[in-house]
Amino acid sequence: MQLLDLIETTVVGLGYELVEFETSPRARLLRVFIDQPENAPKSGISVEDCAAVSNQLSRVFMVENVDYDRLEVSSPGLDRALVKAADYRRFAGQEVQLKLRVPLGNQRNFSGMLEGLQEEDGVEMVCLRMNETLHRFTLENIDRARLLPKY
Question: Residue 133: in which H helix or E strand, if any?
């Protein structure tokens, strides 16, 4: 089983959502970001949630002979990354910052109100309103996307 699949199966089995997974160059550091599922109450992730996932992943890694030095489990934070198509639907109506892989004109970074995801001719398009202008970007062209927290 692939490492990502192993982690996602374990995290989802514990009742959480896997937001993101990062490794260091030789997979010595494993960093896992978890959140409450979309339909769960908006309680956020506690230290106890992180500890429960960390303990279970450690046990799974021991059984599956996954070699690593350090495991970090945390919440995605207020500036949560938008990774999956479902994230763009879930966080519609919130402020986001996008970085494109291929610039649109001479601009690569965009900030505005996320209006969701639409399908056009079989291609998923992220809709972002900046001031009064609606921009559409293919999901494949988005390099990074993060929520912009309101303090």
Answer: strand 133-138
SS3 assignment, position 90: helix
Using a 10 angstrom Cβ sphere, with 0-12 exposed, 13-18 middle and 19 or more buried, the burial of residue 51 is exposed
pLDDT by residue (tens digit) across 113-149?
999 998 888 888 999 999 889 999 999 999 999 999 8
Structure tokens at 54: 């960390």
| Shared domain check, 58 and 14 | yes
* Strand-by-strand arrangement of the 70-74 sheet: 17-23, 29-35, 70-74
Using an 8 Å Cβ cutoff, are 45 and 75 in contact?
yes
92-107, pLDDT tens digit by residue?
A: 999 999 999 999 889 9
Same domain, 21 and 62: yes
**Do 62 and 101 fall into the same domain?**
no
Determine the pLDDT at residue 1.
58
What is the domain-level CATH number for residue 62?
A: 3.30.300.20
Q: Which domain holds residue 137?
A: 85-147
13 CB neighbour count, 10 Å cutoff: 10
